Amino acid sequence: MGHADTLLAMGGAFVAAAFLARLGGRIGLPTIPLFMLAGILLGPHTPGFVLVEDAHDFEMLSALGLVLLLFYLGLEFHLDDLKSGGKRLLTAGGVYLLLNVGAGLGFGFVLGWGVREALVLAGVLGISSSAIVTKILIDLGRIGRPETRLILGVIVVEDIFLALYLAALQPVISGAHGIADTALQAGKAFGFLLVLAAAARYGTRLVGRLIDTRDSELLVISFLGAAVLVAGVSEVLGVADAIGAFMVGLILAGTPSGPRIRELVHPLRDAFAAIFFFAFGLAIDPGDLASVAGPVAAAAALTVVMNVVAGLCVARVYRYGSEPAAEIATTLVARGEFALILAAMAAGAGLDARLAPFIAGYVLVLAVLGPVVAGRAHVLAGALRAGGRLLPGTTATAAVPGGGTAEDTEADRRPVPARASSSSGPSPSSAHAEAER
Fold first, then answer.
1. What is the number of structural domains in the chain?
2. pLDDT tens sequence across 230-273
3. Within 112-144, where are the H helices?
4. In this structure, what CATH number is given to the domain that contains residue 142?
5. Which pLDDT value is given to residue 36?
6. What gap in Å lies between CA 263 and CA 1, rounded to an integer?
7. What are the backbone angles phi and psi of residue 405, rounded to the nearest 5°?
8. What share of the chain is helix, strand, coil (3-state, %, to 5)?
9. Could you list the residue range(s) of the whole structural domain that residue 57 is in?
10. What angle do CA 87, 93, 98 make, to 5 degrees?
């Protein structure tokens, strides 16, 4: 592709993303599936106007979008969010992960695409989209409710699991030969993560002094350089580049410059993340989507069922009433950016070619279905009230995670006005902070 063609393709991609973001806002759909759909429609595999002939032309922009996505997630990740909920959040997150990751692994083996493919599908089916879920909470006016603290806590636990899972999965799917080679690569990956984790725990004061500046331009150059450089080192060491970027974000989050960095990187994240989703769509052949329609429908149905079961189990343990229980059970259905990160890793490792269209179709279905299911929580609440025995009765002293009671829960039923959000939605930690207020 020539210089002019590259600029035209990049400009067209950004314009298409902007147009679809506006359209999504008007019709109430998340932008992630719309960006993917734009890539599919304007890519080389769809008849008609072709904006980009070769998906590899967007490879570097897509990689930068992935790095910025995980870097921002690291910036927004705070162990205080987990510590404040303690055992309750770990238990709730563990229940969700056990049921959804276990179901995903079993589903992968039933499909018979291979062991490595099943491990990828376990992560794809197991982890919610924090961007879409948080946007759902804001759009439905639920961000200030006590049960939302539990939902956001589950997202935090899932984020921790994702970081560890990617580190463990990378050597397995990259074609390591034998147990010894796999163990060596996994050891390198976790050793590198331990070094970065130690820096996040004990080195923030030094890093803060090194990066501190009043000049916003210099700060942007500094944190971008750090994120991209460590992502590259991660790739060299056999760790996913996204994990290196996540750990840099985690380190910088604890510095005095952390809030400024979050503010400065936000528009960059939104712009390049849109290109990441668009580029993923470019590689998808619509004809392949039809060939995996059955597995996609089965996986989507399985995800909805397992999330409802997990939500009701958690609600019963912590004695929520029918309405908050229904909201917990229906809010975490959406899948999005994390599934696509796993899809990108699988494509790079040369796994079964059916994985990419399957994950694309699965994300498209659940990114659209997620807000619909969450908006119909009252239907499940009515069924729970009619059932009677599924949940304990709502009493004045029923326990509520976060230190409140069922009485407090009902007092907080007044909805919070929805606010506009960015294309990727607000972060779990910022929404969690708002919920705490």
1. 1
2. 999 888 877 778 778 888 998 898 899 999 999 999 899 888 98
3. 115-126, 130-139
4. 1.20.1530.20
5. 85
6. 35
7. -130, 175
8. 75, 0, 25
9. 3-436
10. 120
